[in-house]
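REVIEWER CHECKLIST
Item 1: Sequence provided? yes
Item 2: Single chain? yes
Item 3: Sequence as submitted:
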Amino acid sequence: MGKTLEQRIQLLEDIEAIKKLQATYAHCVDQGWNGKTFQDVSSLFVDDATFECAAFGLHAQGNVSISETLKQGSVFAIAQHSFTNPVIEVDGDTATGKWLLWVGVNNGDSNIVFESEDITYKRTAEGWKIQSIELFVAQMLKNEG
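Item 4: Structure as written out by the authors:
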């Protein structure tokens, strides 16, 4: 049987809330222009969230630890994160997202990193939050100039 109009509207609202959460995350970890500095992201994650990136040897457990790990990795004078091509699947109070990500950074040399992220989300009393992130590095391009 098909979904009701209310169920279809709720699905669209959930997807838009997840997109906004992801964009907020990107803005928080951007830095180096227009007065932007790294911002604490712990409130965007559930308390027991996980963050993994095998290519960089990163593993963090817990929202505060994730925020601290990301802050320590924010050594670039300029960093800009752009999440694209979301594939978001909502199943009740949980969801998954597959995103492409490019990160432009500059700390004397300009670099672009092409990545993807597999993310799980959880609906909480405060709204959607990130449950887990698994980051995969596809390619790093370095300015040799």
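Item 5: Key structural point noted by reviewer: The mean pLDDT is 92.
Item 6: Recommendation: ____
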